[in-house]
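Write out the 3D structure for:
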Amino acid sequence: MIAPIEQEIVGLLKHGNKKAMGLLYQHYADTLLGVISKVISDEDLAQDVLQESFIKVWKKSKTYDPSKAKLFTWLYRIAYNTAIDKVRSVSNKDTKEVQIEVSHVYKLSAEGLNQDVMDIRKHLQSIDPKYQIVLNALFFEGMTQQEASEELDIPLGTIKSRLKIGLRELKKIYDPK
């Protein structure tokens, strides 16, 4: 049988009532912090992960299905997975330090640059506008393919196809063989 407080929280979550978050925090925060602390030993980072977990819970609240899992099990999975993701994220950042002293970036001479490709924006205007828009978003505005898809309201698969075709068209300009 489901505890009355759990039923109340689930009902509030389903209706998007913010009171649910207060009740969740009150009844589950300490236990979830314990779960997170088993994965992350840094207390401050564990607190951050707890907050991230509650944000995910709020964003996913309408997807919770009591017939698939108890509320605590669902919360546990979100908190545990968030902690694992954070550990991976931190370890990836640590392994990607920039080694400037061994970098060859600054040793590039002007002779090594192909002067024909320095005017890429001009050449970009010579291809079909639907490819221009995608290439501009990805390369000059720094968007990811997913962000470009959302911003331009174009399906992700279409973004990928237009990127590939647009690059092929630019290659014809720069490397006419």
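The longest helix spans residues 71-95.
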